[in-house]
Amino acid sequence: MIKGILSNRFFLSVFLALSMFVELSASAILIPMDADSQENHLKAYGITYWVLTKQQKVQWLLNYRGGSFLLPDGDAIRKECQIRGVSFEILSDGQAQAILDEIGSPSQNQEAVILEKAPKIAVYSPKGNPPWDDAVTMVLTYAEIPYVTVYDEEVLADKLAIYDWLHLHHEDFTGQYGKFYGAYRTAPWYIEQKQEAEALARKLGFSKVSEEKSAVAQKIRNYVIGGGFMFAMCSATDSFDIALAAEGVDICEPMFDGDPSDANYQSQIDYQKTFAFTDFTLERNPLKYEFSSIDMTNKRGNVPKENDYFSLMDFSAKWDPVPTMLCQNHTALVKGFMGQTTAFNRDEVKPTVMVLGENKINGEARYIHGIKGKGFFTFYGGHDPEDYQHRVGDPKTELELHPNSPGYRLILNNVLFPAARKKKQKT
User: Fold this and answer.
1) SS3 string of the chain?
2) pLDDT category, 5, cuts 50, 70, 90?
3) pLDDT per residue over 13-68, tens digit each?
4) Which are the contacts of 126, defined by CB distance < 8 A and separation ≥ 6?
5) Model confidence pLDDT, tens digit, residues 113-145
6) What was the pLDDT predicted at 421?
7) Average pLDDT over residues 149-158
8) Average of pLDDT values for 271-288?
9) In this predicted model, what pLDDT tens digit does every residue of 210-219 receive, in sequence order?
10) Cα torsion at 96, 99, 104, 105 (round to 10°)?
11) What pTM did the predictor assign?
């Protein structure tokens, strides 16, 4: 009996010693981002951002288990993962190094990118807009990533320079009030928003909303050229480029700005001024809910909802880490979703712009990225990755029901992108 007790104590001591050894030798936390291992992909980005705010570096393991994150070990980080419901694995120093060695092998299309600093984030949006009206503000809130809201006053006062990353809410930079005139011109909310926009333009010294929005677009352009990171979705994508191309040209009909548009304004469009699109034709009909030929929404007759997917492109992680970062996901096939601007006409995307996601059958670019001056921009078609055909007045998307959304992951890839240590690219 005594022998048995001593034996059990011996094994207990060995077990405790081994446990302490494992605890002491643990040096890293792996946040897996593959489909099978991660309970909450979206909040995993929030954890990574939170660690960066503590002045600690993170390694983004591109193409390794869905784009996993390697974090320094610590009780506070473990606890935060548990609180937020993020799956994690404790690695010994040897295990972590083995993963990095595997990733570093020339035979692997993988790379470890160092994230150094939490980017300061701004969202360009009307102050009274509810957070659930925009996919980016929804996912930032859900992932617990802080952001500041800015609008025309801040932009025109050159306040963008203090932010590393700027998202453009579903804005109409052409001054045509979202082309909602045909369906909603008598709706109280439309009348109120038009009056508010006109009042703001006058306050800022402009006689027309279209002129004020054009000035805002020029400031945002300069922000990117100077080294900023810009992300836009839905109508903010094509309307931004149209505003740049139509600088100094009146493309608005009288119901929008009180006077006729310029005669033959299409011939005055300067495609050299745009970020992403070229050779597009503007939609002149004020009753039509469309800006130009860039958008593919009305050209999707052969894309039924059940078959609406787009594929992410495959890049070399070692040679092209930027597009690889932006495409990190646990699936290469992403469910499609609609918007005022659903997707971009592939033939009207400039050849210098990278297509990151496409519906090849319908000739659509869904997700594109480019360089402008010292900065970067990403355009993502559609309104809400988990609401297929979002309409005015529809209820908000509950991201608690979609914690592993591939479509929302693409947004968060862009949020972390400015945190990466810059490395020279091949392309």
Assistant:
1) CHHHHHHHHHHHHHHHHHHHHHHHHEEEEEECCCCCCCCCHHHHHHHHHHHHHCCCCEEEEECCCCCEEEEECCHHHHHHHHHHCCCCEEEEHHHHHHHHHHHHCCCCCCEEEEECCCCCEEEECCCCCCHHHCHHHHHHHHHCCCCEEECHHHHHCCCHHHCCEEEECCCCCCCCHHHCHHHHCCCHHHHHHHHHHHHHHHHCCCCCHHHHHHHHHHHHHHHHHCCCEEEEECHHHHHHHHHHHCCCCCCCCHHHHCCCCCCCHHHHCCHHHCCCECCCCECCCCCCCCCECCECHHHCCCCCHHHCEEEECCCCCCCCHHHHHHCCCCCCEEECCCCCCCCEEHHHECCCCEEEEEECCCCEEEEEEEEECCEEEEEECCCCCCCCCCCCCCCCCCHHHCCCCHHHHHHHHHHHHHHECCCCCCC
2) very low
3) 444 444 444 444 568 999 999 999 999 999 999 999 999 999 999 999 999 999 99
4) 151, 169, 196
5) 999 999 999 999 988 776 667 999 999 999 999
6) 72
7) 97
8) 97
9) 999 999 999 9
10) 140
11) 0.92
C-alpha dihedral sign at 379, 385, 391, 394: negative
Domains and CATH numbers, the chain: 2-115 (3.30.70.790), 121-419 (3.40.50.880)
> What's the mean pLDDT when you consider all of the chain?
92
Tokens of 233: 């979705």
